[in-house]
Amino acid sequence: LHAQCSQCLQSPHMDLCHVPAAREKGWYLALMAPNVKGPNYAWLDPSRLYCHPQGLQDCVADLLQPFQGDPIDMVAGIDAMGFILGAATAAVLQKGFLAIRKAGHLCVQTVAQPYTDYSGREKVMEVRTDAISPGLRILLVDQWVETGGTMRAAIELVERLGGVWDHYPHTLVLHVPTGVAAICIEDSEGGQWIRGHYKCSHCVPSRLQPHFDHHQ
């Protein structure tokens, strides 16, 4: 994967046709691009991955693998990049997609939740109140979980509206779990909290996780 990454970074253009012979989990991570614009931006840009047809398909397949057999009624994606993976995941599952928006974009009745994002900025997200009924099983999808603040706010919104979660690892539950999916869930305090309370899936092989945690 390191060799693939170096080769991709040396080229000004992507090869959208090349697919490696051995498509191990996370091979498509090499398609992502590093930050070249400074500290006001995220350290890595995954959007180049979405341009590669096989890369996007395999990424979604890896995210869904832990949830095989679990009943999922709806997929929810977080504004804005979570819309891409969330909608792609919903299409594969043949389920509906719910957009969790930054405040101020929805013209219908909403419920709001303040949060602090990975950069430390105070924000508010909201979701329409008529889409989630009590007991609905929701798979929450975002591009990345760094500090966990954004995902935790989305979880709180879904729970306030009655979505069903398995409060993993507790066992006294009467439903099959859904959970949280992202390309990477970093080993931050917030990331650990989410992993400890909800069923999660991500795409980073364990041998590479420390590099992602340290933004290398």
UniProtKB/TrEMBL annotation:
Pfam families in alphabetical order: Pribosyltran
Protein name: adenine phosphoribosyltransferase
EC category name: transferase
Family: Belongs to the purine/pyrimidine phosphoribosyltransferase family.
Pathway: Purine metabolism; AMP biosynthesis via salvage pathway; AMP from adenine: step 1/1
The reaction(s) this protein catalyses: AMP + diphosphate = 5-phospho-alpha-D-ribose 1-diphosphate + adenine
Enzyme nomenclature, EC number: 2.4.2.7
Residue stretches making up the Phosphoribosyltransferase domain: 70-162
Gene Ontology cellular-component annotations: cytoplasm
Protein localization: Cytoplasm
Organism: Tachuris rubrigastra
Taxonomic placement: Eukaryota, Metazoa, Chordata, Craniata, Vertebrata
